[in-house]
Design goal:
Order of helices and strands: EHHHEEHHHHHHHHHHHHHHEEHH
Radius of gyration: 22 Å
Number of helices: 19
Number of strands: 5
Helix content: 55-70%
Strand order of the largest sheet: 1-2-3
Strand content: under 5%
Shape: globular
Length: about 425
């Protein structure tokens, strides 16, 4: 069934609002199905996850649907501010609000709050349970956040294909029941860590600002900036990943390479955080991530790998290595933040401090994709490859000039602003 009929070319106003689409495990598959009938709009799961698509305006099932769909994380973090949230909910003048719209709007807000809460809540609990292997514990949780999509997406797609009319509603009802049973069972089985006791009286906790001031303020600013730059660079490359793969002549293997890069992303979340448990200073992991990213980015820049990679095995391997290393570093940057913060500021306010630090993720979502798209659209020249794809090898190559500068800045921040604990203890 043609679920969505695209009504025409994007307008300048629509292009103005290139924003991230929904980012939650139970929703992206359904929305992919919902939009897959749009003519001329190729929306894939990774596009939904990383925001490599424009807003879509058209008619779905004969009824007008919202012009702009945003990332639930954006709503939770307040990334777009009141005006943009209003704009997201504003209907096209000629459209009438339907039950489906109200359902989806309600779902986005609820899932936005649930996503933010669900992402933060396990972290402190896991670090209390596994004090000696905090990185491994949080790495498993953060890797599972992404792995859930790989497990749930084919199941959801099968339900959408076989549940008939109103399948998307039936799918969400089934998922709600299944997830409730799983989560409630986990709640019943979960016990307190051995040796952990309820506080006997309510003590006044420090404010977040007071916690941050327990160490030089520049230290926290450095952690925030490292996280922000790593995510910005990751999104800048990941948002162009499929087109880069096509530039090096592997258009037929885009799906496989995307899957492999997703494995590196999840592996980086688990591997880097578990590795950090063996180090005296967890900031060493960030230094390693930045050095690897600088080396591979520099090699692809010097060799012109994206421009000249087609037909050249060595350059193709270098470009794929860059994609995989950046994905692993992107994931590792996420999983190491809470443990790094706990080492520097203790466990007392870790959830609130981690939540504030995740604002860097929100800002990176505004800059990473957008700046990369601006560079690609403003430099080089688009051409047709042998498969009929419109590609701009020079534009994608030029994105690397931005990312290598940012990676170098991040490395300098890691070296000089985020200071090891023992050095501060001596002063």
């Amino acid at each position: 069934m043609d679920m969505c009929r695209y009504s025409g070319a994007f307008t300048p106003l629509q292009h103005r609002y290139r924003i991230l689409l929904v980012h939650f495990q139970s929703g992206d598959s359904g929305l992919h199905r919902f939009f897959q009938g749009c003519n001329g709009v190729g929306i894939q799961f990774r596009d939904l996850l990383f925001g490599n698509v424009c807003s879509v305006s058209g008619e779905c099932g004969g009824e007008g649907y919202p012009q702009i769909i945003t990332d639930c994380r954006d709503l939770f973090c307040g990334r777009y501010g009141r005006y943009r949230i209003f704009h997201i909910l504003r209907r096209p003048a000629s459209a009438q609000c339907t039950g489906a719209d109200r359902y989806l709007h309600m779902l986005w807000f609820i899932m936005g709050v649930g996503l933010g809460t669900g992402y933060l809540s396990p972290v402190k609990t896991l670090m209390l349970w596994f004090e000696d292997r905090k990185g491994l514990a949080t790495g498993l949780a953060v890797a599972g956040f992404g792995a859930a999509k790989a497990i749930a997406s084919p199941i959801m797609q099968a339900m959408l294909d076989n549940l008939g009319e109103g399948g998307i509603y039936k799918m969400f009802m089934i998922l709600a029941a299944v997830y409730f049973i799983m989560m409630f069972t986990g709640h019943i089985l979960l016990k307190k860590p051995e040796g952990w006791h309820e506080p006997q009286k309510k003590e006044k906790s420090q404010s977040i600002l007071s916690v941050i001031k327990t160490r030089p303020v520049a230290n926290y600013i450095g952690i925030w900036l490292m996280f922000y730059i790593n995510i910005t660079c990751g999104l800048a490359l990941i948002s162009q990943e499929k087109m880069i793969v096509k530039c090096i002549g592997l258009a037929g293997a885009v799906g496989i390479i995307s899957t492999v890069s997703a494995i590196f992303n999840a592996g980086g979340r688990l591997g880097f955080s578990a590795w950090a448990d063996t180090m005296k200073d967890r900031n060493t992991i960030y230094k390693l991530i930045f050095v690897l990213s600088i080396v591979f980015t520099g090699l692809v820049m010097v060799t012109g790998g994206i421009k000249n990679g087609q037909g050249n095995m060595l350059l193709t391997v270098l470009v794929l290595g860059l994609i995989f290393v950046v994905n692993a570093g992107y994931g590792g940057g996420f999983s190491n933040v809470p443990t790094l913060l706990s080492d520097h500021y203790g466990m007392g306010s870790i959830s609130a401090l981690h939540g504030i630090t995740l604002s860097a993720w929100a800002f990176a979502g505004l800059t990473g994709n957008q700046v990369a798209n601006l560079i690609v659209n403003s430099t080089g020249e688009f051409m047709q490859d042998s498969h009929g794809n419109s590609i701009n090898p020079v534009g994608y190559q030029n994105v690397l000039y931005l990312t290598i500068v940012l990676y170098i800045v991040a490395l300098l921040i890691s070296l000089f602003m985020v200071r090891p604990l023992n050095k501060d203890a001596k002063k």
